[in-house]
Amino acid sequence: MAHQNEPFLKDCRVLIVEDEYLIGDDLANALRARGAHVIGPVTELADAMSVEHDDFDVAVVDINLRGCSSYPVADELMRIGKPFIFTTGYAAENIPDRFQHVRRWEKPYDLEEVTADVAELCRSQLHPLLAV
């Protein structure tokens, strides 16, 4: 088990899709403090859709980006097999059925718990045999 101050996200590249500056910045800083390479926060749907798939390992996706749904981003991530989690103010029953398997963190979320969740997704993506 990694200690709190160890860079347990070393080599993990995380895409953050979040339009609320403080939330995105706090998450980016928390992930970087644990060794992650952070892309974003990306605040616009079009920008999120244009990020190269090879540039990141996992994604943290806010469902509502300035009034636009980020479901197209989530659909693309599912299509290419990239793991992701949702951060949102939406309750589970407001999420389409096709995303019911995706972990969802309701705002305001605990940064420690979200970074631990991201680390788990990274381990399963980067070291699939160790994640069993």
Which architecture would the CATH scheme give at its second level?
Answer: 3-Layer(aba) Sandwich
Biggest pleated-sheet summary: 5 strands, parallel
Order of helices and strands: EHEHEEEHEEH
Fourth CATH level, the homologous superfamily: Response regulator
Helix content: 25-40%
Low-confidence stretches: 1-5
What is the structural class?
A: alpha/beta
Mean pLDDT: 90
Strand order of the largest sheet: 2-1-3-6-7
**Highest CATH level, the class:** Alpha Beta
How is the CATH topology named?
Answer: Rossmann fold
Instruction: Count the E strands.
Output: 7
Count structural domains: 1
Computed Rg: 14 Å
- How many helices in DSSP terms? 4
User: What characteristic shape results from the CA principal axes?
Assistant: globular
Termini gap: 15 Å
Instruction: Note the beta-strand portion.
Output: 15-25%
Structure notes:
The protein has helices spanning 21-33, 45-50, 71-80, 111-126; strands at residues 13-17, 37-42, 58-62, 64-65, 68-69, 84-88, 104-106. The chain is globular, with a radius of gyration of 14 Å. The two termini are 15 Å apart. A 5-stranded parallel sheet has the order 2-1-3-6-7, with helices on both faces. A hairpin with a 2-residue loop joins strand 4 (64-65) and strand 5. It contains 4 helices and 7 strands. By secondary structure, the chain is of the alpha/beta class. 34% of the residues lie in helices and 21% in strands. The chain has a single domain, classed as Response regulator (Rossmann fold, 3-Layer(aba) Sandwich). Helix 1 (21-33) packs across helix 4.
